[in-house]
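DATA SHEET
Item: assembly model
Revision: 1
Owner: S.N.
Input lines:
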Amino acid sequence: MKLSKILLALFLTAAVSFIGCKPKDSTIQKNIADKFAATPECAGATATVFDGVATLTGQVKDDMCKNTAETTAKNVKGVKSVVNDLTVTPPPPPPAAPTVSPDTALSQGVTDATKDFPTVKATVNNGEITLTGTIKRKDLTTLMQSLNSLHPAKINNQLTIK
Amino acid sequence: MSALQDKYKQLIDAANAAGISNLQVSEQGNVLHISGNAPTGAAKDQLWEIYGKIDPDYRAGDLILDIDVAASAGTKAKVTTDSTALNIRKGPGTDQPIVGKAAHGEIVTLQNKTNEQWWLIKTDSGVEGYAYAQYLSPQ
């Protein structure tokens, strides 16, 4: 009788500790959140856990991130399965093509910009400014800043820098 | 990321960090165009410094760095010519007659920005006209 009581007690202890091995939903949820926080690809993803099933919601950068988040969640102890409801941020529209000034406007602008640098020769063709002649190094950035603000397609700098 | 964006990554990152508004980065015909409005002249100078480190002689011909400095009417601007006085003209262009001069280092008041090159300014002595923006730095 005594022995059976001891055995029962042992069995109960074992059973309780066995059940105790299974993480609670809230613990799993926190563990997933911690893993997500440590994984940059998972930024934007959150998980809710119910009966060991993790449901992922939120918006991530791309499909790769979506898969990474799913794998990350699956590898957390206690997760039975993952429902991946993550959405992917649509890619931004491609940047608009740069505006290039017409040659007449460019020529006028180039005349103004090179006025103080008589040793610089500049020609404009098809949106491209070509510089020849000589310039002092200390004046180079000033001239380039002026020319860059004219919206040319390209600047071919063939100046001799003194 | 394209090879050009990679080459000028430091510049693009700095432009983002410096709070350049309307920042646009685009490519056309193997030339990278970076444009936007800098909050201060110092922010613009910083970007040009980085450009100068990547391509000291600006010879590669693969970048157009078009950074305008934000300045509204009423802003004070310093004349930053090399040493000479800055011409103040009747209209926006070097073909326009000179109506006055602002001394090197003088502080003038911005009336409006006609375009990126020419600003309408007024000196403390009351001379009003157009001056080349490259030689004005908003204070």
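QC remark: The domain at 103-161 of chain A is CATH 3.30.70.1770 (Alpha-Beta Plaits).
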